[in-house]
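Hello,

Our lab assistant flagged a job as stuck in the queue for most of the afternoon. It eventually completed. Since we weren't sure the result was trustworthy after the delay, we are filing this so someone can double-check. Below is the sequence as submitted and the structure that was eventually returned. Let us know if re-running is recommended.
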Amino acid sequence: MSVFTGSFGQEQKTTDEPDQKLLTVEDSNIKTRVVIGRDLVNVEENDSSVTVKVKNRGISILESLEGPKIRVEKYDEEEYPGEYVREYREQDEDNRDAYRSARNFRGHWSGIDFGFNNYVFYGSADLPDEISFMNLNTGKSFCYNLNFTQLSIGLSRHIGFVTGAGINWNNYRFAENNSIQVGEDGVVTELIPDSESPVKKSKFSTLYLNVPLLLEIQIPAGYSHRLNVAAGIVGGLKLNAWTKTVFKDGEKLKSNGDYNLCLLRAGTTARIGYENFMLFGTYYFSPWFRESRGPAGFNPEPYEIGVAFTFND
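-- returned structure --
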């Protein structure tokens, strides 16, 4: 509530709500003005009258020689002293429009991803000779992601944060006819399968629960289509790990284990695409294996690249 007293240019305020803009009136005969709410009630008093206005309608009590007179009036909006009402009304409408736009923001995370995975060692794709048994057949090392839930937090119609959850399944297909195991010294080492039949294929697989936090920007491209760019971080919780070896005679050998993997991992990820078709890449920078417990004590860093088909709409 704002109260105006005294002559033109002097003002006192008692505030129960945030300060409101009160248009200066040049009529210095007004002694007191009381404004309640943004546009509800406006009371003006001077030596000869009391006027109570509710929006653009009001009642005036006039003092005259014949006694008080009562007059009911409808005021022209353009002349109505409470012009700040229109300003607040426009601001409220703008705020509502912004809220509706932000509420309509839909990110691009939930869906199905397919791609290839590998790992690097200190930024190089060439692994040290000590862990050459970890070399991969990249063309047959696949990753699959099922991103089953999504939460979009809009900052505007085309910008917002995206989070959710998904299952990340990585298959690392070894280039040689070997597998891996945790040796007696507690370090991941090479395993040569003990079988008379030659090895057909061998792989190391992991399963994680992934949770991202992305900032996404959508660029309008036509009437209702958009280019989408997103980047952020992704955290993973290890659910399972296993090795599988298939021999040429059809025999299969599968072994579940811990393989000294860290329970949690973190990485950076980026996605770019058109509508519901995206390209993505993820690089996990946190230690993959527990300290000094990885292959021959080393700690390669995994990454993924691929395509995504999202279900945001």
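-- support follow-up --
The delay was a queue issue, not a problem with the job. The result is valid. The chain has two domains: 2-100, 107-310. The longest strand covers residues 199-220.
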